Amino acid sequence: MCEDVDVWITHIGGYPPKYNIRVVEEIKKNPPRIFISGHSHILKVMPDKKLNLIHMNPGAVGKHGFHKVRTMLRFTIEEKR
């Protein structure tokens, strides 16, 4: 929880609607408002309208790995927004 917002952060989580097998059952039972996962190194922010959540992947900010562009996300949660 952050500012009364349910946030789930995991390394490998998949994307809407194709969530990873390790999280798919739980995310459908109890969807967070914000779901943050990585692994692909691809920056994405997208809604899952079916589960009413926002999915975020910050991409890759490090200097190592196959990615050529360094990315990250910065956002603010205030009073459930």
How would you describe the overall organization of this protein?
The protein has one helix at 24-29; strands at 7-10, 14-15, 18-19, 34-37, 44-48, 53-57. The protein is mainly beta. It has one domain (1-81). It has a 4-stranded mixed sheet with strand order 1-4-6-5, with no helix packed on it. It has a two-stranded antiparallel ribbon with strand order 2-3. It is globular, with a radius of gyration of 13 Å.
Mean pLDDT over the full residue set: 91
Q: Please tell me how large the radius of gyration is.
A: 13 Å
The proportion of residues forming helix, as a percent range, comes to under 10%
Number of helices: 1
Order of helices and strands: EEEHEEE
Low confidence ranges = none
Main sheet overview: 4 strands, mixed
Shape: globular
Total number of distinct structural domains: 1
Strand order of the largest sheet: 1-4-6-5
Distance between the termini: 13 Å
Secondary-structure content class: mainly beta
Tell me the number of strands: 6
Give the percentage of residues in beta strands.
Answer: 25-35%
